[in-house]
Specification:
alpha+beta, 7-stranded antiparallel β-sheet, 36% helix, globular
Length: 196
């Protein structure tokens, strides 16, 4: 990938993410990736992530897909892919492939990508592991981060990100046996405000 494109994507990613990313770490990933000429909408990125820690909370941030802006509006989802995307969303499955299909079904976002003067956008993933509550319960928030360079409608992107964010709480079934339970954003916020 050309250096100017890499620098632009790094700058735009830092603006889109609520944490400070390791720019050199992600710059190295993008610099060393070859994006082949292809009619496909996206190219996979290596599964490398940055860990950010603070008291009672930590994050993992990763780049998941390079999206080809020129192909954003040239793809039609088949019926079975639409069905799979709907099923995966309803059961709370987090998948960058499913999110890419979901994205292509959103006319507003496809329009933003098609209008971009830049060749690529990024689909990223931000995972938050949060113990910062009265009971020290574990909450896991998994959120997609969509980076469309120089977009004028970041609020529309944030709306899509929030709609596709998954909230989970670790619950105890038996002694030493825990599982993750899907919860609503409101339940998460309620527990964040539970300090005495």
């Amino acid at each position: 990938m050309e250096q100017s494109t890499v620098e632009n994507l790094i700058k735009e990613t830092q603006l889109a993410v609520p944490i400070i990313i390791d720019e050199d770490f992600f710059r190295n990933i993008l610099t060393n990736i070859t994006v082949p000429v292809s009619s496909k909408f996206y190219t996979f990125l290596p599964k490398k992530r940055q860990l950010i820690q603070e008291t009672n909370r930590y994050w993992f941030f990763s780049l998941r897909r390079i999206l080809r802006n020129e192909h954003a509006s040239k793809y039609q989802l088949s019926s079975w892919k639409k069905l799979w995307e709907s099923l995966a969303s309803s059961i709370g499955l987090y998948s960058s492939n499913v999110l890419s299909r979901n994205l292509r079904a959103d006319k507003d976002l496809i329009s933003l990508m098609s209008e971009s003067k830049h060749p690529y956008s990024l689909l990223c993933k931000l995972e938050t592991y949060d113990y910062d509550n009265h009971n020290m319960d574990l909450f896991i928030i998994t959120k997609p981060i969509l980076v469309i360079p120089d977009t004028k409608n970041r609020s529309r992107i944030i709306s899509w990100e929030n709609a596709n964010t998954r909230y989970q709480r670790e619950v105890n079934l038996f002694p030493f046996i825990n599982r993750l339970k899907r919860i609503t954003p409101e339940e998460y916020l309620e527990n964040q405000n539970s300090f005495p």
